[in-house]
Amino acid sequence: MKIHPFWQFLIGTASIAFLALGCYMLGDSIDQWAVALILLAAVSVLAVLFDILPVLAAALLSALLLNIFFIEPVPDYKIRDTESVLLFFIYLFIALVNAVLTNRLRKQEKKIRDREEKEKTIKLYNTLLNSLSHELKTPIATIIGSVDTLKEIDPEIGSQQRMEILAEMEIAGNRLNNQVENLMNMSRLETGTLKLKRDWCDVNELIFMVIQKLPATDTIRIRFEPDESLPLVKLDGGLIETAVYALVHNATRYTPKQTPIEIVTTYNKENNLLIDVLDSGRGIPEPEISHVFEKFYRLPNSGTGGSGLGLSIAKGFVEAHGGTVCVANQAQGGALFRIILPAEVSRLQI
């Protein structure tokens, strides 16, 4: 947080004054050379924290106090011996140069950070374009192609073929909608505009809604046994539903066909809601585990499809609730994603 220049002047001069007072109270137990080093160290610290003008003011004040109260004769601004004159001017020179050079170093570091941030932004922008160029183009092309087919189709063709074309359009439309929602959600997380709308939520119902949103296919097997003992939990149901969907949808991409994906919900003694998503895939290579929640990150050889945003968004939504999401490999194979949410609960009284 940027400190107002007035407060920088006040804090800087007050710090030097109090430090000089402390040294003065020590009397003969500390000599002028030690005081000079102490005051110079204080100016150096201020130079790291504050702008150039407040630091220069503090440096001049420290030189003045050193002259009057620590260089003989005391208290007097006049210096009579050569050694003391040399001490005073060397101190003043070093303090001023230190303030100026430190300020220049801070500006240079800021320029370097800004340049690195711009390079990072450009890299993310290019990654986003490269990823979405395929993710958006494919469903749009499918929809346009299906519409053209419906326009040109022979009226005598049966409704079965029409339904198949419409189903393809629906899948492509849902895929397109998911990508747009991911971009909007990531924007909300990046800009800090995400606001939680907490309400009492039935976790079992939330999981069933996630399962219903998954693409209709015979190759996905979801196992979920609702726990009727779970209490109602106060959270933003929409955000947590999106987070769980991202984990389950990710599992469907890396789990062999006809192998189960299991969802388990529990509420532990630490008052945390746990939502586990277990798949039967090959697991995650150990060197990659620490990267799976990064934006635009995708596992090597993960095939086409996916923008690498889903897990990052899930992590952001969970952390917005004060929770955590983690991943580990199971001993019997496959990956385990776990959402841990500290949650306020309410149990229905029967």
Strands of the biggest beta sheet: in what spatial order? 2-4-5-7-6
- Based on Cα principal axes, name the global outline: elongated
- Which percent range describes the beta-strand content? 5-15%
Got a strand count?
A: 8
Rg, rounded, reads: 33 Å
Distance separating the two termini: 52 Å
The SSE string, one letter per element, is HHHHHEHEEHEEHEEE
**Helix share bin:** 55-70%
Structural class: alpha+beta
- How many helical elements? 8
Largest sheet geometry = 5 strands, mixed
The low-confidence parts are: none
Mean pLDDT: 79
Q: How would you describe the overall organization of this protein?
A:
The chain has helices spanning 5-25, 32-49, 52-70, 82-152, 159-191, 203-213, 237-254, 310-320; strands spanning 199-201, 221-224, 232-235, 260-267, 272-278, 324-329, 335-342, 344-346. The chain has 350 residues and is of the alpha+beta class. The strands form 2 sheets. It has a 5-stranded mixed sheet with strand order 2-4-5-7-6. It has a 3-stranded antiparallel sheet with strand order 1-3-8. A hairpin with a 5-residue loop joins strand 6 (324-329) and strand 7 (335-342). The two termini are 52 Å apart.
Topology:
Elements: H1 5-25, H2 32-49, H3 52-70, H4 82-152, H5 159-191, E1 199-201, H6 203-213, E2 221-224, E3 232-235, H7 237-254, E4 260-267, E5 272-278, H8 310-320, E6 324-329, E7 335-342, E8 344-346
Parallel strand pairs: 2-4
Antiparallel strand pairs: 1-3, 3-8, 4-5, 5-7, 6-7
Helix pairs in contact: 1-2, 1-3, 2-3, 2-4, 3-4, 4-5, 5-8, 6-7, 7-8
